[in-house]
Amino acid sequence: MSDDLLAPHDSAHTDPPESPPVEATCPSGVPEGARCLRGRDSMGAHYMIVIPRQWSGVLVVHAHGGPPLGEPIASRVEEDIKRWSVAVRMGHAWAGSVFRQGGFAVTSAAQDTERLRRIFVEHVAKPTRTVIHGQSWGALVATRAADLYPKSWDGMLLTSGAVGGLLAYEFRLDLRVIYQYLCNNHPTPDERAYPLSIGLPKDSTFTEEDLAVRADEALGVLRPAAQRSLEQARRLRTLVNLLKIPEAGVIDQLRWGTWALRDVVEKHGGSPVGNDTACYSGSEDDASLNATVLRYRADPAARARFAAETEYSGRFPMPVLTVHGIQDPTCFVEVHDVLRCRMRAAGHEHNLVQTFVDSDQHSYLGDDIYPPLFEALLRWIENGDRPTPHQIADRCRAITPAALPPCGFVADYVPGPLASRVHPR
Predict the structure, then answer these.
(1) Residue pLDDT, tens place only, 380-394
(2) Domains of the chain by range and CATH?
């Protein structure tokens, strides 16, 4: 990837002036006494800002997960603040953008995130510290924003972050071709054939309900194990063994490998993923699988464009703190080995601390998990006191009420390489 793709930018020189946000009624879930502001930036992205009654001076700019496909919906920001009101309860201001463009548009979302930060500074208040928080796919947005605007952020918090790069997305093609090898019903033999690497033809009327019905017919994935036929059980077992995903995650992953992959292909002018050199193992007959499974070669131009959207330098000059569920079925925990290796190669591993939780959740790991992370990150920013996973786990246990389940931090956990989870190329 060319270095100029990751060169710092200053959108202040190109964006038109921003209008100030307006006072708005706070949605449910926002702490009592908080002040809420709403607006739409100069590029059309809706946003919300929430300021607690007693503000710490810290601003948390949130990059949401997804990405949702289709046109952005302004109410999305209400969902985000309900989930992440923990920051406001801790006394920090929170700002979240819906992003101007739906689907897989990382760079424009990073620009929207930076624009929202500037709106806060210009029209609300000047924070003492500014943290960018990326959740799931939003971690890609955060890392892109950190590459483009490194002086804007004092620290970065990545939660359940999708930071695995291209190989993590090629997993979805692996799923499609292996599912088709086993089940041959997406598409069926009498339907129009198309390359599985495009996800789904643009004009297709195939629905998520159709997919669920077919997956259940082939795998019995929506019914209790005792109600599956022997053939359904065999196929499901083979799929799970090959792809190392839980049974409960199969339909969601198939959905992302269909509609989300189609969105990626449409936005990048071709399919950036391929499996022409993948060697699959874990089936009852790997030789037959590898000889028969459908093969696709990535479009080089689309792959380069996709890399420009998703790859990050690792040259982060600010503290970076992460947390991830070890059994996360949506985004494999092994993606964090990619982040660690990339920051090490860039000479910035000293700016990274990674923590892990004994959890199978992705979207939200629990009210007890995030406060010690925010505390540790801000202390690191202020004092240069780089935390350890053990210190964060101890702090979580100290501040978690006895009525809640014990903190799930696993302080000594280290994820394996992503190639141990996704078939390497």
Answers:
(1) 999 999 999 999 999
(2) 3-165+308-420 (3.40.50.1820), 166-299 (no CATH)
